[in-house]
């Protein structure tokens, strides 16, 4: 399995358990997760996100086969192109964007340029439930329709919606947008099943949100879906490998 939604590092507003690379690797071993796409949650609240990317590069050093670093870039920051170039030299394999936290729109020209830079782009719709946020902040969720607008404005981009909400299947996302399952339901109205039916298993990827969230719910959802071996393999790893340009 490949976890497309994981973190290494500390978050400003909440004490997370097991935030070091070693902690994440032990959880991955326990649940038989082969790789994880990771970013540093410190970048969400740093005024300049780049130092958090430098911290991440140091934290995952020596684990490049399992921990795939994703850089947090703020296209509203004046030096973002220099940050992107530096992150490429650090071996970052993708991007993670926080438009609400960093106060820009996904449809801004700089963001469209960034999305078309050739790296997979992951966009969490939320970091935390708005009702659980610190009294110091009030950050709304990203609208899935805005993510769709970015996908259409940058047709060559490869975008993954993380921490997706239940309405994502009805958001009209273009074909270059995939959806991660960690906050979607596989029971009751079966949001994941609806998503697969509407868009196909090629547009769905596995993720947990760890350590913000527990790993077990995502694993249970995969069991509840009752997919055949081929469809399950695509969601658990194949689609993520394709986004990274990995074959075989």
Plain-language structure description:
36% of the residues lie in helices and 14% in strands. It is α/β, with parallel strands linked by helices. An 8-stranded parallel beta sheet has the order 1-2-3-4-5-6-7-8. β3, α4 (80-89) and β4 (94-96) form a beta-alpha-beta unit.
- Give the class from helix and strand content and strand pairing: alpha/beta
Strand order of the largest sheet: 1-2-3-4-5-6-7-8
Largest sheet: 8 strands, parallel
Cα-atom radius of gyration: 17 Å
SSE order, as H and E? EHEHHEHEHHEHEEHEHH
Distance between the termini: 15 Å
Q: Name the CATH homologous superfamily.
A: Metal-dependent hydrolases
Kindly report the CATH topology: TIM Barrel
Number of domains: 1
Shape: globular
Strand content: 5-15%
> Quick one: how many beta strands?
8
Give descriptors for this structure.
single chain, 248 residues, alpha/beta, TIM Barrel, eight-stranded parallel sheet, 10 helices, 8 strands, 36% helix
Summarize the structure.
With 248 residues, this protein is of the alpha/beta class. It is built from ten helices and eight strands. It has one domain (2-243): TIM Barrel (Alpha-Beta Barrel).
Secondary structure topology:
Elements: E1 2-7, H1 21-31, E2 35-39, H2 42-45, H3 50-59, E3 67-72, H4 80-89, E4 94-96, H5 99-102, H6 109-115, E5 121-124, H7 144-153, E6 159-162, E7 177-180, H8 191-199, E8 204-205, H9 216-225, H10 229-243
């Amino acid at each position: 399995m490949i976890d497309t939604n994981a973190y290494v590092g500390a978050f400003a507003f909440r004490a997370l358990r097991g935030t070091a690379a070693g902690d994440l690797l032990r959880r991955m071993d326990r649940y038989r997760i082969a790789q994880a796409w990771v970013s540093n949650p410190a970048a969400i609240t740093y005024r300049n996100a780049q130092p958090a990317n430098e911290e991440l590069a140091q934290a995952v050093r020596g684990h490049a086969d399992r921990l795939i670093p994703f850089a947090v870039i703020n296209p509203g920051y004046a030096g973002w192109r220099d940050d992107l170039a530096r992150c490429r030299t650090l071996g970052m394999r993708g991007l993670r964007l926080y438009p609400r936290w960093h106060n820009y729109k996904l449809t801004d020209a700089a963001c469209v340029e960034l999305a078309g830079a050739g790296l997979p782009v992951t966009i969490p719709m939320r970091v935390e439930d708005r009702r659980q946020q610190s009294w110091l902040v009030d950050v709304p969720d990203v609208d899935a329709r805005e993510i769709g607008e970015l996908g259409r404005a940058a047709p060559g981009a490869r975008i993954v919606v993380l921490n997706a909400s239940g309405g994502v299947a009805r958001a009209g996302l273009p074909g270059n947008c995939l959806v991660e399952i960690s906050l979607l339901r596989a029971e009751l109205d079966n949001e994941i099943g609806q998503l697969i039916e509407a868009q196909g298993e090629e547009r769905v990827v596995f993720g947990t949100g760890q350590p913000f969230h527990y790993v077990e719910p995502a694993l249970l959802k995969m069991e509840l879906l009752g997919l055949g071996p081929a469809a399950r393999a695509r969601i658990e790893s194949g689609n993520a490998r394709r986004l990274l340009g990995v074959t075989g």
